[in-house]
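Sharing a chain and its predicted structure for anyone who wants a worked example. Both blocks are below, sequence first, tokens second.
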Amino acid sequence: MMIVTSTNIGIRKEILWNNKLVSTGIFKNPTSEGIFLDKTDVRNDAVIDRKYHGGIDKACYAFSENNYSKWQELYPELTLNPGMFGENLTIKELKESELFIGDIFQIGEAIIQVSEPRQPCFKLNLRFNSNIAVKQFFNFGDSGVYFRVIKPGLVMPNDTLILTESSQFKHSISAVFKAVYEKPNELLLQEFISNPQLSESIKIDLKKKWQIS
């Protein structure tokens, strides 16, 4: 059973990284008041670069609470509180191999749909004060998941994700994420690109990465 253990929200921060001032909303903290999922973002959450964050296919990002322990072992000097990965929802028992593109869930007042895995940018390195956090993220393969918001609504800690509609396309978040950095067979790659419920941004990335017209 997938249960929300923390709802997280962030404010805009300016951080000096590699001698450049970077604006980011990755620094998120838990809020006991819950969060309101809107169509293109979480209400009152900082979304800085809307070319890569927010929007219909990336309205809300969730990460598994179960993954925190192995990251804590890698970074014992850091305190890894919920929201450390920039997620709006920290969810217990979220498993990318069991979430399929197009699955629809009721969560609190909201209805959400699985749309794509996360592809981390350099700001994850910034968050961990490390030059290799992004590489480690790919090595682990635990991408977390982006959701579309079909019905906006309030989500609170301890809300449960209830599957209301299973996708007819059995393309897991794990499989799509792996295809970003390890080429799948041609048939599977074409299936991903043809999946109408997979976000367009991932399709574009797959076509560009593997030179598919």
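Comments welcome. Residues 200-209 form the longest helix (10 residues).
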